[in-house]
Automatic annotation (TrEMBL):
Superkingdom, taxonomy of origin: Bacteria
Keyword Chloroplast appears in the UniProt entry: no
Stretch forming the signal peptide: 1-23
Carboxymuconolactone decarboxylase-like domain location: 27-91, 157-218
Protein name per UniProt: Carboxymuconolactone decarboxylase family protein
Keyword Chloroplast in annotation: no
Keywords from the UniProt entry: Signal
Length: 243
């Protein structure tokens, strides 16, 4: 009887150790960016910077990591909102070449889902405003200020086009879109206030501080020390203000 009690106690102890270790592994996995997310960083940064040779490598890595063709197309289209049509179109042309090369090699990639139809009957401005409030966690109140008051038309374009036409498409999640966004902004440089704002949005949509630190590390590997150092400086400011 005593022997059975000892064996039972040992089994319970081992199970507790296993459960704790498993929980720690799961927690660590959840605190890390996935291979797909890391690929989106490389794709966004390379496209924004215009480094098409590097982009070709990142596009192949993204497909190999499990990103669908439509997800990558969406990421490349998303870039134009922050780096312009020329960069976005050159990215899409590079992706076309990559797809042709992979097809020649007999590689079949998953096309993935198309964007769901939008059934919201509100105006695009109201839909975009609601999406921005969801991303920022802040309800927009009061009169316009800053650039929105100085040039009201661009504020309308942002609401109707960027946050309605683009962010509303569900091929990429808000997290994925924000990762692409901060990758592009970091690669082009000189837009620190916007990078600061979008790093805050990253936190609001569920990316952790650890994941944003990993974002900077990934940026260094895929883009360079200069871009990563500048992004780290902005991220340090964002996290300091969160304390």
């Amino acid at each position: 009887m005593a022997k059975n009690k000892i064996l039972l106690a040992l089994a319970i102890a081992l199970n507790a150790i296993y459960s704790t270790a498993n929980a720690q592994v799961t927690s660590t996995e959840h605190s890390m960016l996935s291979p797909k997310e890391q690929s989106l960083i490389g794709i966004g940064a390379s496209t924004g910077k215009g480094d098409l040779s590097k982009l070709k490598t990142e596009l192949n890595a993204g497909l190999d990591a499990g990103l669908t063709v439509n997800q990558i197309k969406e990421a490349l289209v998303h870039v134009y909102a922050y780096a312009g049509f020329p960069r976005s179109i050159r990215g899409l042309q590079t992706f076309m070449a990559v797809m042709n090369e992979r097809k020649t090699k007999g590689i079949t990639d998953s096309i993935g889902a198309e964007a769901s139809p939008v059934n919201d009957q509100r105006s695009k401005y109201e839909r975009g405003k609601a999406i921005l409030e969801q991303l920022s966690g802040v309800q927009e109140k009061g009169p316009k200020s800053g650039y929105a008051a100085f040039a009201p038309q661009i504020e309308i374009f942002l609401k109707e086009h960027l946050f309605a036409d683009i962010f509303e498409r569900d091929i990429l999640t808000y997290k994925e879109r924000e990762l692409v966004t901060v990758s592009v902004l970091s690669s082009i440089g000189g837009v620190e206030p916007m990078l600061n704002a979008h790093l805050n949005l990253c936190l609001n949509v569920g990316l952790t501080q650890q994941q944003l630190q990993q974002f900077v590390e990934t940026l260094m590997q895929k883009t360079g020390k200069k871009e990563a150092k500048a992004a780290q400086k902005v991220l340090d400011e964002v996290l300091k203000n969160k304390k």
